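About this split. The held-out portion is used to measure sequence recovery: a designer receives only the structure tokens and must propose an amino acid at every position. Recovery is the fraction of positions where the proposal matches the reference. Here is one held-out target exactly as it appears in the evaluation file.
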């Protein structure tokens, strides 16, 4: 019996030792596994990242995010049509383990809300929309501030007093940009008119270039746009006229025409948002950042812009950044001459976000 007791005691000791060693070996594996787990973030783009415009600027922000926060794993899906197909792509991104998704076009809004309801543990950020949920926030920048400044530049530059605007879709965002641009033009050149042509496209190089040509043939000597391609700028260069780009610096695509571009800088917003989610401090909101946040800006001026004109634009830019000037401050009249904003009053964000009329100085109509 004594021998058996000693034997069993030895066996129990060995079993306990193996158990301790086994537990000890699992711990670093768990820790190592945690180290290898990366926060996955998905981006969905309406156009190709090589569009030189909207999707290009968002992808630059994605790359900035990766550099600023090590250990992330980001992915993107480009050229996703707005509508039902975007719901499928958003679902696909979630099923692949993405815990944060940035949907970067207005037309993804309803799809984002639908998919977010199915996946409450995933955070969705929708660019330029207005619908939110507990796990859905919206984000945008006050591009109308940069648009106003490019209008000042166009108004100072035009000789024909005809300026062309190639417009995308008749939604408040686009209408707001046209109005802000026209207010900028008329602030320095009350005789100038802004002609609008609609393409109903975000990304169609041929159609957008043709629209630019039609405006130039109608007498415009400066053209600008609200699409993702440099087509209108290239049309201006071919005609020996000037242009103002959008989304990103388009001067490389038409160096003799582009005076500047109204540009987006999404990177810092993406970094701040992801850090807030990681820290557990993020809450659904509707971010609409001003020029002072550096989310919108002007690209460097081209050599054709004189120092005197630069000074005029930069002075107004500083007033906007410092909050001394607000673009949509009355008196503002519509095309029919009716006063819409009284002298000294500022248009509310709600009114700006639902704009469906043109200011005085715009030539064109808003399709229903």
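Reference sequence for scoring:
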């Amino acid at each position: 019996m004594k021998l058996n007791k000693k034997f069993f005691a030895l066996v129990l000791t060995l079993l306990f030792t193996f158990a301790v060693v086994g537990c000890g070996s699992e711990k670093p594996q768990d820790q190592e596994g945690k180290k290898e787990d990366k926060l996955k973030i998905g981006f969905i783009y309406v156009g190709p990242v090589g569009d030189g415009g909207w999707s290009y600027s968002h992808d630059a922000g994605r790359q900035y995010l990766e550099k600023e926060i090590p250990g992330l794993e980001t992915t993107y899906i480009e050229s996703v049509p707005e509508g039902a197909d975007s719901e499928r792509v958003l679902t696909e991104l979630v099923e692949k383990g993405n815990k944060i998704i940035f949907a970067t076009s207005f037309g993804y809004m309803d799809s984002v809300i639908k998919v977010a309801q199915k996946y409450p543990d995933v955070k969705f950020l929708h660019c330029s929309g207005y619908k939110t949920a507990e796990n859905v926030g919206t984000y945008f920048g006050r591009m109308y501030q940069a648009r106003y400044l490019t209008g000042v530049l166009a108004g100072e530059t035009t000789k024909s007093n005809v300026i062309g605007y190639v417009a995308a879709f008749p939604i408040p965002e686009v209408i707001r940009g046209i109005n802000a641009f026209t207010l900028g033009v008329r602030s320095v050149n009350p005789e100038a008119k802004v002609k609008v042509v609609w393409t109903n496209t975000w990304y169609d190089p041929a159609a957008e270039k043709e629209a630019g040509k039609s405006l130039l043939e109608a007498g415009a000597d400066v053209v600008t746009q609200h699409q993702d391609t440099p087509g209108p700028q290239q049309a201006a260069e071919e005609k020996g006229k000037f242009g103002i780009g959008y989304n990103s610096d388009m001067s490389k695509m038409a160096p003799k025409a582009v005076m500047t571009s109204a540009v987006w800088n999404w990177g810092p917003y993406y970094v701040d948002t992801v850090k807030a989610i990681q820290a557990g401090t993020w809450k659904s909101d509707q971010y609409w950042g001003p020029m002072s946040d550096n989310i919108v800006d002007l690209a460097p001026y081209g050599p054709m812009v004189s120092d005197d004109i630069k000074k005029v634009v930069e002075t107004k830019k500083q007033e906007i950044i410092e909050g001394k000037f607000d673009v949509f401050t009355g008196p503002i009249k519509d095309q029919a001459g009716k006063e819409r904003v009284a002298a000294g009053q500022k248009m509310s964000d709600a009114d700006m976000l639902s704009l469906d009329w043109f200011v005085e100085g715009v030539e064109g109509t808003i399709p229903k």
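Annotator remark: The chain has two domains: 39-141, 143-263+297-363.
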